[in-house]
């Protein structure tokens, strides 16, 4: 049977993996926001362009900028959600890790106590054998 500390160690490992997954989700969302920002810059450049080809599409570009702004706003909310999730997962992992260390300390203390009791039992048993 496994010790409590071993079980908690496994939970800490799982929790740290969940934390890494949340960090990867945040990184992907941040990358998507950067791509949207780059696209908005390109569209804004096309709107401000003096090229007659771009002037004909200015209405389409304006609509596209609106859609991109909306997408950026949505991604900002998702990004904030991922940031909160990272904090939550990290906090859970830290708490589990503290409990694991406490369990290890208790198990070590219990093992030391058992060793002392065994020595006392041996001493008492040896003393009884000599006393006969």
Short summary:
This protein is mainly alpha-helical and 132 residues long. The chain has helices at 4-47, 52-55, 58-131. The mean pLDDT is 91.
Radius of gyration: 32 Å
* Contiguous uncertain segments of 5+ residues: none
Characterize the main sheet: none
Mean pLDDT: 91
Strand content: under 5%
Distance from N terminus to C terminus (CA atoms, Å) equals: 41 Å
What's the number of helices?
Answer: 3
Provide the number of structural domains.
Answer: 1
| Succession of helices and strands | HHH
Helix content: over 70%
Find the count of extended strands (DSSP E, 2+ residues). 0
Secondary structure class reads mainly alpha
| Rough outline | rod-shaped
Folded structure, characterized:
This is Flagellar FliJ protein. With 132 residues, this protein is mainly alpha-helical. The protein has one domain. 92% of the residues lie in helices and 0% in strands. The chain is built from three helices and no strands. Helix 1 runs antiparallel to helix 3. The longest helix has 74 residues. The radius of gyration is 32 Å and the shape is rod-shaped. The two termini are 41 Å apart.
């Amino acid at each position: 049977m496994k010790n409590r500390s071993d079980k908690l160690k496994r939970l800490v490992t799982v929790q740290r993996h969940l934390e890494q997954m949340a960090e990867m989700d945040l990184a992907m969302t941040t990358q998507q926001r950067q791509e949207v920002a780059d696209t908005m810059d390109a569209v804004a450049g096309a709107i401000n362009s003096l090229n007659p080809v771009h002037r004909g599409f200015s209405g389409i570009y304006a609509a596209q900028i609106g859609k991109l702004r909306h997408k950026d706003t949505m991604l900002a909310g998702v990004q904030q959600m991922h940031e909160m999730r990272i904090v939550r997962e990290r906090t859970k992992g830290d708490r589990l890790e503290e409990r694991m260390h406490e369990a290890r300390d208790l198990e070590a203390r219990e093992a030391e106590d058992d060793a002392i009791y065994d020595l006392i039992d041996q001493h008492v048993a040896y003393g009884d054998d000599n006393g006969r």
